[in-house]
Amino acid sequence: MSNTDDKVQQLLRRYLEGSLSRDEFREFLSLLSEIDKSSLSGELFNLWESSASQEFSLPEEEWNSKMRKLTDEIENFPSKDNKKIYRNPGQKILSWGKVAAAIVVLATAGGVFWIINSRQENKSGIIADLSNSKNDIQPGGNRAFLTLENGTRITLDSLRNGTVVTQGNTEIVKLEDGKLIYNVNEEEESQLIINNKIITPRSGQYQVQLPDGTRVWLNSASSISFPSVFKDDERNIEITGEVYFEVAHDGRRPFIVKTVDAQIKVLGTRFNVNAYEDEEAVKVTLLEGKVNVLSPTENSVTLSPGQQASLSKTGDLNVAQVDPETAVTWKNGYFQFDHADIQKVMRQLSRWYDVEVVYEKSVPKQLFGGEMQRNLTLSQVLNILGKSQVKFRIEERKIIVMN
Questions:
Q1: Which domains does the chain have, with CATH numbers?
Q2: Among 141, 143, 128, 4, which Cα is nearest to 393's?
Q3: Most buried among 49, 112, 314, 375, by the most CB within 10 A?
Q4: Does 75 have pLDDT greater than 60?
């Protein structure tokens, strides 16, 4: 256990006992904001658990009150770069209900990760360490395929920088940072329009700049189809999976995104579309500008920044106020969870690490919130999640959820 962990544990115990001074409380929050989550000991988890024991017990009402206060303080405490550790306006990270919760707090200047589960005895007394697993799996990366109209398939991540292919008056170029750009020479008379499709496999992601200047980020197991040159009246594309857009403004030509179940119409804006078939709903989250979301039954809503449209499998279209930045943390290299159940968490891991998930027994009921880096190995992620008392093992390319 590091000196920092030991100090945090001492201050945490004193906080629960109600004996911290104001200065000590600020020191406690400061240490939580600076501690490296890779060095945070599992002893912290044991301290939270010990509050339910005879040695160090708290009435449920007092436990809930202290945890609510600490949650609020951690959410609003500035890190070294003066940015708040975690903030989701209008929402709490934790939902306490009637049952007290055991929490693992993994805090760094870049984020806070919470694990929420009912307080119960850990019969085994241990949490499995998967870090030395022979079957460890590396995180995904920039991988994608470009499929041309004639069926030619190009593996983008293995190409050298420079011109990839010329289509009529459109030149496709791979830059040094791996991004793909479509440059249209408008002075040439040729207006040959060729359909293109970019596909990211499971464990892949990719960034593309479309012929109109629109910037696009594709998450794993996603695709985007678009022409080499957009027509004069509109810009139509089709997507699957999850895609983030920064649309180039063009008042003459609306930008139209089609999924299997929804159509999104914009002029110039920033928004995210999550349209994975294995998720419960298509979700469109607006960060800037305005978009119109149309359902197959012709129901439509117009979103303002900070709103999210959710289109269910049954066709119900609803709008909620959200923190839009949480919808695009994947683009910035993080997993983001907000009261996510284990199945939702596993779906994200399954796509990013290209693994199958098997539930050995019943599906655990733990909830998870906060963010984790996407550049961790699978064993590192499962070690963090394992502090919730859910046990995992890795077998070849499978995550086995053991309880």
A1: 3-136+332-401 (3.55.50.30), 141-329 (2.60.120.1440)
A2: 128
A3: 112
A4: no
What does the pLDDT average to over 167-190? 78
Q: What is the CB neighbour count within 10 angstroms for residue 89?
A: 8
How far, CA to CA in Å, does 76 sit from each of 85, 152, 324, 325?
7, 52, 18, 16
Measuring CA to CA, how many Å separate 253 from each of 7, 45, 192, 230? 59, 55, 19, 9
Each residue of 91-122: pLDDT tens digit? 232 222 222 233 444 433 333 455 444 334 33
Q: Global pTM? A: 0.72
Separation between Cα atoms, residue 193 and residue 169, nearest integer Å: 9
**Strand pairing class (215-218; 162-167):** unpaired
Alpha-carbon span 113 to 371, nearest angstrom: 5
Distance CA 310, CA 291 (A): 13
